[in-house]
Model the fold of this input.
Amino acid sequence: MEIDFNDETGMISNEHMELVKQLLLYAAEQEDISPEAEVSISFVNDDEIHRLNKQFRQIDRPTDVLSFALEEQVEGELAITGAALPVVLGDIIISVDKITEQAEQYNHSFTRELGFLTVHGLLHLIGYDHMNKEDEQKMFTRQEEILNDFGLSRKG
Done:
């Protein structure tokens, strides 16, 4: 998987970037995502994610993670085919302010929260959602499986 990082905050260490890379590769393997897939991950502050949340979701507050899938296919749309084309999954935007805040709130490490938001964002890119209880249960169960198997349990 090709991963493009952008840390607008300067707060994400090289060790955390490497962890995110390894976690994304692991999750991609677990979800049978093509090794040719591409994803972009950006780390921003609350002000920037607030702006994006308002602009794209009409929600006027900061959030922890946003995912912008590029491979979504709407009803009636023809699928793009071609084995030579890389699969561009999309963009994951994570608020570093929220990582810190929520790690404290949920009484676990910055690393665990970073991992949680990374997997959450990736699962959104590949079609998971939590708009109803059934889908939420499926998505959150899968997140926990991936995180626990990778070694980022709630105490991690």
Q: What stands out?
A: The beta strands are 2-7, 38-44, 65-69, 88-95. The radius of gyration is 15 Å. Residues 123 and 139 are 7 Å apart (CA to CA).
